[in-house]
Amino acid sequence: MLTIDISCQLTDFNLTINTIINSNAITGIYGRSGAGKTSLLRAIAGFHQTTKGCILFDDKPWLQSSGNILISPENRPVSMVFQEARLFPHLSISQNLRYAQKRCKNSKIHYSNLVETMGIKPLLAKDINTLSGGEKQRIALARAILAEPKLLLLDEPLSALDTGSRKQFIGLLREIHKIYKISMLFISHQIAEIEQLTDEMMVIEHGKMTHFGKTADVIYALSDLGDIKEQTSLDLLINKSLPDFGITELLLFNDQKLYLPSHYIAEHQKTRVRCNVMSTDISISVTPPSSTSLMNVIPVVINKIVKLHNKAKLQVSYQHQRFFVTISLYSLLSLELDIQQQVYIQFKASALKTI
Ligand SMILES: Nc1ncnc2c1ncn2[C@@H]1O[C@H](COP(=O)(O)OP(=O)(O)OP(=O)(O)O)[C@@H](O)[C@H]1O
User: Cα separation of 45 and 73, whole Å?
Assistant: First the structure.
């Protein structure tokens, strides 16, 4: 458990955070530019000397102002990975990695195993200055892990990467988390990245925490408030691949079939995949759609209708899965939709997105 109850004054910016984070989880940190996300990570790492209050990691105090306890940054079991890799350009790739390992006195992480897990063996012989952005980030992550931290602080590590590398890096972080059981705090401006990687998330605004909870629930709350584009996060079971048609069949609660283009799936059958669907990509039918090319059709109940200028925002549910749907006011009125009505939502396979 990571207990944070701190206040940190940075010239004219104040960061005040009080929360308890599950150290077995990967936790996302989301918020606008200047909200205080990086400052929070730096305070946890011990870099902001004005931090007052208490930080406990698995009951060990890193900061306890009331008892005059202040563990210096180098003695906190923390590694950070930043937006840019920050490798030592004058050292070889192996020297960069060994440097981190040497700083860790009782290293239990096996160098070759980590190199294998992270798929960086082919990179070791390369000149460090010729690595791509994605390759550099993988080395930076390996270096951070070799320092054997209990907590890994990830400050927008994906922001300079292309979509393919981002997907790969997220998969790698999940794998690392599973194998080495390192707690992770992950900052991103991209909801899709947080959705893919994290179990829980917090939102920071003006130095204060406004939301904290299970990632899908917080995304739902932000959509409801209109803070992000309205979308629904789904956690689906991969049922089977239909390679002849280029699609994958997924299950929502073991019975409702959904389909998405296979190229999104890098995982195996019977594992789960997180996806989202934008409210504007969903349409409504009052009768069961029979002759339609739309592959995803779900029977739902309308729970809420909010009429806006020329649009209507609906919240509907299938069992305990809620969906946001945006349709035109014209459609709402011509279909005579009402609360508690049973209808069908429908969307294309391509509307179901991973990243
Ligand atoms: N060392 C410092 N001294 C004074 N002010 C600081 C210091 N570090 C950060 N700040 C201020 O704290 C505020 C929050 O900055 P921070 O970098 O934590 O935001 P952020 O949410 O990470 O933003 P971004 O998403 O743009 O990286 C900003 O107004 C910044 O100017």
Answer: 6
Q: Answer yes or no: is the ipTM higher than 0.95.
A: yes
Per-residue DSSP letter, 353: B
Q: How far apart are CA 249 and CA 310, in angstroms?
A: 35
Which of 240, 229, 231, 230 has its CA nearest to residue 352? 231
Identify the structural domains of the chain with CATH numbers, from first to last: 2-225 (3.40.50.300), 231-351 (2.40.50.100)
The whole-angstrom separation of Cα 250 and Cα 48 is 46
pLDDT digits (tens, 9 = 90+) for 215-226: 999 999 999 998
pTM: 0.89
| Token pair listed for 228 | 């992000």
In the chain, DSSP finds a helix count (H) and a strand count (E) of 8, 20
SS3 call for 132? coil
C-alpha of residue 109 to centroid of ligand 1, in Å: 34
Cβ(35) to ligand 1 under 6 A? yes
Measured from the Cβ of residue 128, the count of other Cβ atoms closer than 10 Å reads 20
Measured by CA distance, the residue closest to atom 25 of ligand 1 is: 33
